[in-house]
Design a protein that fits this description.
The protein has two domains: 327 residues, Alpha-Beta Barrel (TIM Barrel), CATH 3.20.20.80; 108 residues, Oligo-1,6-glucosidase, domain 2 (Alpha-Beta Complex). The chain has 16 helices and 24 strands. The strands form six sheets. An eight-stranded parallel beta sheet has the order 14-13-12-6-3-2-16-15. Strands 1-17-18-19-24-21-22 form a seven-stranded antiparallel beta sheet. Helix 7 links the parallel strand 13 and strand 14. The protein is globular. The chain binds 2-acetamido-2-deoxy-beta-D-glucopyranose (3 copies) and calcium ion (2 copies). One calcium ion binds next to loops.
């Protein structure tokens, strides 16, 4: 039995942490008692409010619905929940097009409902985090209307340009930049007689972050919601905040061709070296972090956190953690399990994905693990429904922050949404032949509570997206009472409260044909996840990967749903027989 890969990291005791230290540090030599701030070992849970719980029977989830289900969040051990956008919006992009950053969309409720949600959540020890969408506003935002009218103070709130003339004297856009959907990123505005930049839809004009008044205004947005009790922000689409600075004539350079496609309207036709991942964007995030820290200094309370969404390259992502002198975001999302793996991945890929983040992460920072979100297919649909427990167990046993998208704890799967039923603009802007490639609706179907009407999501059988028919089996009520993904998840949550998972070192590697092993150790006590990634049984020798340093006796602590092994059973570490896709947490 060969071991392909071995990795170890003394990641956990902050004062000892160094990316170059390989080999198991003995934590008992640490003199200080380890301390962790609340978020460092937290369990975050993403709620897509439209699909979580409908309180008034209109078929759309809302704030009162969330408030009514806070006990469920407690039940599954959530520390903090982040809500996808609830701000006032014409819903051209389901709330990612904000018309009023200071108010709530009617169908979700109002500011009183929000206050009630915060109050109830806090009384249960739950924190609430809001999505912050800085890259653009809606064209229905009053700021945009004022900018169109060149009102004093708003003239440069957005990125405006006269455009150019072609050889025949016809007006053409300032340069070749493309929007994320299709076509030019510049739209002519008749009233103002200028083009405005929109990196997303026409209805989503880009704010001009080179205008200090815009920067100040967005900071006022953050403060406004901090005053209303939020524990931090998840910041959307960060890479798009800044574009390259205009030259002395006010012009922007063309982006070079990527060579990936001949389709001139496709965003990937160009390499986005001037419209994404600009260094100023990183600095903007540092400024937002400072705002949160200053807020805490003045108003007290727990640390406020920043969660950053970017799918950029790892070297750029890591900059968001901060540098030697400046703090950045506590949690730049780790999307490596989304970007680099799926049901066809080789087993050793799993260990490589873990390594990618841990090896790049700067010293003293906290890792985080994201398996899914509202923009991705369900974890069980991407990695295979046989691996639902495996993915939840990996996420939970790894050090640092775990982030669950609602429903993954139940093993919810993609809904089958037809072209006619589609709601996501990414699907609707395409056509019936290709929409499956773009749609994000399948992961947004209503949450499955029980076997009543609309899976208990709504009293209205006509929900905004159809309920997945598998709700008959896959629902909270059912899964509470049986051997289930939910119960495995809850046991993992309990395990996360132990010192071993909070402070322990990590060692991980492969044994057998395709068995991932993750070992956490603290003060001589270990928990070991053993997960057979493959669909074939395997008998493995856990000692064969000598550098995992597994010896002595181990007992079963948490078996996956289909495992035949009993909790408490001793296992033979030299000859551990695993069924296909079987996963076990063992304890020393
Ligand atoms: C291996 O594990 C044993 C306890 O099982 C421990 O005493 C020893 O220090 C470990 N060795 C290394 C190199 O971590
Ligand atoms: C398991 O691996 C260890 C270390 O390589 C070896 O000493 C032992 O003989 C192996 N046991 C079996 C049953 O293969
Ligand atoms: C990554 C990404 O697309 N982020 C958001 C930025 O804005 C667009 C348009 O509103 C949204 O679709 C995205 O979710
Ligand atoms: Ca509703
Ligand atoms: Ca921008």
């Amino acid at each position: 039995m060969k071991s392909f890969l071995f990795l170890t990291l003394s990641g956990i005791i902050l004062s000892l942490w160094s990316p170059v230290v390989l080999g198991c540090q003995n934590p008992s030599t640490v003199t200080n008692t380890p301390q962790k701030d609340w978020w460092e070992t937290a369990q975050f849970y993403q709620i897509y409010p439209r699909s979580f719980k409908d309180s008034n029977g209109d078929g759309i989830g809302d704030l009162k619905g969330i408030t009514s289900k806070l006990d469920y969040l407690k039940e599954i051990g959530v520390t903090a929940t982040w809500l996808s956008p609830i701000y006032k919006s014409p819903m051209a992009d389901f709330g990612y097009d904000i018309a009023d950053f200071f108010d709530i969309q009617d169908e979700y409720g109002n500011l009183d409902d929000f206050a009630e949600l915060i109050k109830e959540a806090n009384s249960k020890g739950l924190k609430v985090i809001l999505d912050f969408v800085p890259n653009h506003s809606s064209d229905e935002n009053v700021w945009f209307k004022k900018s169109v009218a060149r009102e004093r103070g708003y003239e440069d709130f957005y990125v405006w340009h006269d455009g150019k003339k072609d050889a025949n004297g016809n007006r053409i856009p300032p340069n070749n930049w493309l929007q994320a959907f299709r076509g030019s990123a510049w739209e002519w505005n008749e009233q103002r007689q200028q083009y405005y930049l929109h990196q997303f839809a026409v209805k989503q004009p880009d704010l001009n972050y080179r205008n200090p008044e815009v920067v100040a205004q967005m900071k006022r947005v953050l403060t406004y919601w901090l005053d209303r009790g939020v524990a931090g922000f998840r910041i959307d689409a960060v890479p798009w905040c800044f574009e390259v600075k205009a030259d002395e004539n006010g012009n922007y350079p063309d982006e070079p061709l990527s060579g990936f496609t001949d389709d001139k309207d496709d965003s990937s036709y160009l390499r986005h070296i001037y419209t994404q991942d600009q260094p100023e964007t990183v600095d903007m995030v540092y400024q937002w972090r400072k705002l949160l820290d200053d807020y805490q200094r003045i108003h007290g309370g727990d640390t406020r956190v920043l969660l950053i969404e970017t799918y950029s390259g790892l070297d750029y992502v890591m900059q968001f953690y901060g540098n030697k002198t400046t703090q950045g975001a506590q949690i730049p999302f780790n999307f490596q399990f989304i970007l680099n793996g799926n049901k066809d991945s080789e087993p050793k890929r799993y260990a490589e994905i873990i390594k990618m983040w841990l090896d790049k992460m700067p010293a003293g920072k906290t890792p985080n693990w994201v398996m899914g979100n509202h923009d991705q297919r369900r974890v069980g649909s991407r990695y295979g429904k046989e691996r639902i427990d495996i993915m939840n167990m990996i996420q939970m046993i790894l050090p640092g922050v775990s982030i669950t998208y609602m429903g993954e704890e139940l093993g919810m799967l993609d809904g089958d949404i037809t072209w006619e039923q589609s709601k996501d603009p990414a699907a609707c802007n395409s056509n019936p032949q290709i929409f499956q490639k773009f749609t994000r609706d399948p992961a947004r179907t209503p949450f499955q509570w029980d076997t009543s009407t609309a899976a208990g999501f709504s009293t209205n059988p006509n929900t905004w997206l159809p309920v997945n028919p598998n709700y008959v089996d896959v629902n909270v009520q059912n899964e509470r009472n049986t051997k289930s993904h939910l119960n495995v998840y809850k046991q993992m949550v309990e395990l996360r409260k132990t010192d071993v998972l909070k402070f322990g070192t990590i060692q991980y590697g492969m044994v057998g044909n395709g068995v991932l092993v993750i070992k956490r150790t603290y003060k001589g006590k270990s928990y070991v996840l053993v997960a057979n990634i493959l669909g074939t049984p395997d008998t493995v020798n856990l000692s064969s990967n000598t550098r995992l340093n597994i010896s002595g006796s181990l007992r079963v602590k948490i078996p996956s749903v289909d495992s035949m092994k009993q909790v408490g059973a001793s296992i033979n570490i030299a000859q551990l027989a695993l069924q296909q896709y079987e996963a076990l947490v063992l304890e020393s």
